[in-house]
Structure formats: structure tokens, C-alpha cells
Amino acid sequence: MASSPASERNSTARPAPRPNTAFRRLRGRLSPGEFAASVRRAARDIGERVSCDARYIGRVESGEIRCPNYAYERVFRHMFPGRSLSDLGFAPRAQVRGRASRSCTGPQETPGTLPEPQDHRSADTYEESDVLRRVFMAGGAATAATLGSGPALPPGSIRSSRPVGAAEAAAVEEAVRSIRLLDDRHGADGLYRQAVQPLRAAYALLDAGAQRRSTSDRLHAGTGELAISVGWLAHDSGRFDDARSHYAEALATARMAGDAGLEAHAFCNTAFLARDAGRPREAVRAAQAAQVAAGQLSSSRLLSLLAMREAGGWAAMGDRSGCETALLRAQTLYARGPADADPEWMSFYGEAELEGLEAQCWSALGHWERAAHHARRAAELQDPHFVRNTALFTAELAGDLARQGAVEEAAEAGDRVLDLLDGVRSARIRGMLDTTAGVLAPTRRVPAVAAFLDRRTAGAAAA
After folding, report:
1. Upper half-sphere CA count for residue 281 (Cβ side, 13 Å)
2. E strands, 98-160, where?
């Protein structure tokens, strides 16, 4: 059958990607997630803001991104002084998509994340695809663009004149990254209600269906990950019933699609939620189910995290033996190092998170000194990019020190959390700080404690 003029134009406009072997060599032995973290750190060093993640690195190395936008170019030149774009394996900007006239103003790749509310970005650094804006945002999820500005249509209003395609699937994936980035920086409280609308739109796209199996698989995976991300926002803001519902939706999506990775992720978050909600046996069972699903994958780091979730369940049950067995398994698996098969969503699971989760286990078992040791290590090791986690681990440290009797040091840690809460809104962290304040209250005569308690009360009154 003869091809249509449109298909002929498409076939000539975008040649098949050629792997960027030069860029892959520069990554060396780092995993895509670890290399992405180094890109973000380099960006901060020069005052740039890029939302690099493992998938972005994969798209560069596969040749899908033939030329970075100007923000990424400046970061890469900072990381690899003296090297041109050609040295880094990229095509000349004027050749990308044959759009020389737009090469200085238009984006050259799909975004790493969507923009933050109230952020100012130039045309060079605003990494958003016009295609994604049209098909997904106009399709009923305008809030995905800013997670909070402008009205959004109900999901039932989505009507497509053509089958759902790769652009829609990509837009769902970008909504996931946007939510994760904003949560890392600001916490969940202000995001949950706005993030629900993109999720509804994603499910409406699933209902509309996709012609290609590969697109349908991407859409199922993206929608499931979006459900988990929205569930986490509910979880961290204390809406446990909502979180459980979202995680259950993600698990059902995973089962329908036969997606073992998504199933493992859904069970992982279910285990975490069950522990926080006071259902430790369910936490252990969910973590074990996640490990069964993850056994089909080749990610030791994922299995390590799931073992940590199991350890948290055992600790909440007061079972030290079960906890220590799971902790040892988690540490052994973590030591095997990163792999290309590590899921993108696990970018948070580094040495700091490993220490922080162990601190939570020892705290649940009542071993305050040991818990404080690991919490301090977690706070020290945490990448500043993850502001919320820095606040979380420091709040954990404050609570452990308070119970240990080191009240002045606990108050100092509590003050550091209050500093971080100026930019982070998390009901979970505030609840931890409230508990610590209750432990410290009988020692108000200590000046540092009194100052912390007064400051916390004043902050709560102003909120």
C-alpha cells in the first residue's frame, strides 16, 4: 500500500536514532540515575535549573535527543570543559529536525519535568513540548502544566479525533516527573488536590485506547506510576484512605498490563503505607509480594529497597530478629551496586535513604542511640536536591535524640527542621516534629528546648 504524504514527511523529518556512544562513555560506571544526579549537581553549581533523570540520560544515549537545549548544553560544557557538542556525541543544533530557524529559541527535546509554579524560565530553559501541551493538557489536565493554575475539564470531556498515541503516553510520563520533582522540593500538602486531575485525565486516555501495543503498554505503565505518585502525595499528607485507594488502582493497572515492575512499585508503596497506618503484618506481606514481583527484574537495588520495606514491617511488629534478617539482606543487595535495570522512580534510593530507613527501624524497636546514629548519617549524606528528605531525616534525628535524653541536641535538630519547613509542606514531617515537641515539653527549662518549642508553636499558629 502506498504511503501517505503525511507519513512520507514524517519518515524524512525524523531519521532513526543513532546511539550516542560518546555520551555513554562519559557516564562510565555510574548508573543512569547516578549520572543524572551528577548533572543536577553541576547545574546548581552554575546557577542552572534542569530536571535531569535516568530516563533523560537514556534518551540521550539512545540518540532520541540529538541535541540538548541551551540549559543542558551549558551544564554539559561545565561538566566536561573544552568539549564541543560534537565531542559529546550531539548533532549540530541547526540540523536537529531540520529547523535551523528555531534552533535558538525552540526546545530540542521533550522535558525532564514540567515547570514549577511561579518559576520564571527563558525560552532556552523552559523544557516543554508544544505537542504535549496540546494533546494532554487540552485533553482534560491543564493542571499538569503547573499543578495548580487554571481550570481543568473533567475526564469525561476528553474526546480525541484520532487514536491515543505516543505523545499522549509521553505527556502522562512527564506529569509523573513533574509531581516527583515538586514533592522532592516542597512536600505533598500543597500538591495532592491539584495532582488528582492529571490522574483522572490519564485514566480517560486509557479508556480511549491506543492502536499500538507498545503505546498501550507505555500508557498503562505511565498511568500506574502516576497513580502511585498521587497516592504518595496523599500518603505524605496524612490522607491514608486516599493513598490506599490510589495504590490499589496502580496495582490493578499493573496486573492488567502484566507489568512486573509496576506491580513491585505498587506493593512497595502499599507496604510503606501499611506500616505508617499501623498495619505492620500487612506491611510485611506487601513487601514480600513486591519482592516476588521484582524477582522477574534484574535490579539488586530494587530488591534492597523492598527488603528495607519488609524490615520496617518487622520492626513495627517488635520483631527484632525478623528486622535484622531483612536489614542484612537489604544491605547485601545494595552493595551489589546500581544497574541499568534499576527503575527510574528509585532515584531517591541512595546511601542516605538506606541510612534513613534503618534509622526508622531502630527507632520503632526502641533503640534510640542506634537510630540517632543512622538518622544523623542520613541527613549528612542526603543530596540537597531532595529538600523534603533532608527535613524528614533531620526530624527523625530530633525525635531519636529527644527519646535518648539528648534534649539540647534534639532541640537544635528540631530548629533545623523548622528552617527547612519554610519551603516544604509535609503533614508527616510536621507530625514527627509535634511528637518530638511532646517528648521535649517536660524539659522546657533548658533554654534551647524552650526556644525550639516557642518557635514551633509560633509557626503552627501562623500556618
Report:
1. 0
2. none
